[in-house]
Amino acid sequence: MQIVAVKVLDANQSFQNLSSIISALDWVRVNHPDVDAVNMSLGVPVVWRQLRQQ
What we know:
The chain contains 2 helices and no strands. It is mainly alpha-helical.
């Protein structure tokens, strides 16, 4: 098993939009196509409207 670290948070340990997470997942897909699982722990104080629409 291989663990790949991908940074999606800024210097304040937060992110401004969902596109940074999507870009990170896309990077993993392209650069590590044999990955079996991705684990993300992203704590946010609110539920994003985009996530509710999924």
